[in-house]
Amino acid sequence: MAESIHYSPATLNTSYSAPEIINQRRVTLDALTVQPGQNILDAGCGSGFLTYELANLVGNNGTVMAIDKSEEMIDATMERCTGLGQVTSRIANVKELPFDDNHFDAVTCTQVLLYVGDVAKAIGELSRVTRNGGRVAILETDWRSAIMHSHHPELTDTIFTAWDKTVPSPNLPGRLSRLMHEAGINVTHKEAIPLLNTDFDPGNFSVSSLNWLSGNAYKRGAISKEQSALWRDDLEKLGDQGEYFFCVNRFLFIGSKI
Ligand SMILES: C[S@@+](CC[C@H](N)C(=O)[O-])C[C@H]1O[C@@H](n2cnc3c(N)ncnc32)[C@H](O)[C@@H]1O
């Protein structure tokens, strides 16, 4: 499985501005309870939405280090955080973090580990750089929890299954508690965060994801171009009839380094 799926910051910006993803960040940050003055790592920062919010929570006396393996994402993060002197960034791999042991008060890693083959190693690194008693927050999706109302459920299944076959570590939520425990993290908070869409709105999470999801299944040879168009057109029609319905769960795990 490829660890090299390429996203552009523009791809992330649409879905990460959707109200349900804004809510996901709010739920994550409420549960993590970041304090002013803390020293935080945002591992796999993407285009920096969470980094920006963390920076505002730690304030001028705190620091946020944003790392990502993609230079393009680091550039997008630093652009978003222009004027926030508490944010610094580095290109780095979550499997080999270039920081001392026990360095951060809290570490966030949201929607990143599915792209990593050796998840145990990555979580070991997240734990290593967190100070004793510091907190680690990991958030992942399980696409098997998705409900999509469609006249072509077999295409929906094929398209979601193709996505799971594309990433090296799909369906992680079921394993996260154990993996975090084995990395020396005492998991104290587990929460499902549903992403629910009931309108065919191009700005919501699911509609903004339809093209890359079906495009991925097409590239993998799982569906034809015609099937991709059939699937999408049906969903749009359901939207016109007031019957669009999509829901998938994201799962948040937070624990303290022992
Ligand atoms: C879907 S985005 C999530 C962005 C951000 N964490 C958020 O939730 O808003 C995934 C990000 O993880 C980064 N990534 C994937 N594998 C990585 C790795 N091994 N080390 C560091 N970053 C990685 C990608 O470059 C991408 O920017």
Task: List its traits.
binds S-adenosylmethionine, Rossmann fold, 258 residues, single chain, eight-stranded mixed sheet, alpha/beta, 8 strands, 9 helices
Layout of helices and strands:
Elements: H1 9-16, H2 19-32, E1 39-43, H3 49-58, E2 63-68, H4 71-80, E3 87-91, E4 104-110, H5 119-128, E5 130-141, E6 147-148, H6 153-166, H7 173-182, E7 185-197, H8 205-219, H9 225-240, E8 246-257
Parallel strand pairs: 1-2, 1-4, 2-3, 4-5
Antiparallel strand pairs: 5-8, 6-8, 7-8
Helix pairs in contact: 6-8, 8-9
The chain binds S-adenosylmethionine.
Uncertain spans: none
Helical percent range? 40-55%
Name the CATH architecture.
Answer: 3-Layer(aba) Sandwich
Number of domains: 1
CATH homologous superfamily descriptor: Vaccinia Virus protein VP39
Shape: globular
Order of helices and strands: HHEHEHEEHEEHHEHHE
The biggest sheet, with number of strands, parallel, antiparallel or mixed sense and barrel status, is: 8 strands, mixed
Radius of gyration: 18 Å
Bound molecules: S-adenosylmethionine
In a few lines, what is going on in this structure?
The protein is an alpha/beta fold and 258 residues long. The protein is built from 9 helices and 8 strands.
Q: What does this protein structure show overall?
A:
With 258 residues, the chain is of the alpha/beta class. It has a single domain, classed as Rossmann fold. The chain is 41% helix and 24% strand. The protein is built from nine helices and eight strands. Strands 1, 2, 3, 4, 5, 6, 7 and 8 form an eight-stranded mixed sheet that branches. Helix 4 links the parallel strand 2 and strand 3. Helix 6 packs across helix 8. The longest helix is centred in the C-terminal third of the chain and has 16 residues. The protein is globular and about 50 Å long. The mean pLDDT is 96. It binds S-adenosylmethionine (SAM). The site of S-adenosylmethionine (SAM) has 20 residues, from helix 1 and helix 3.
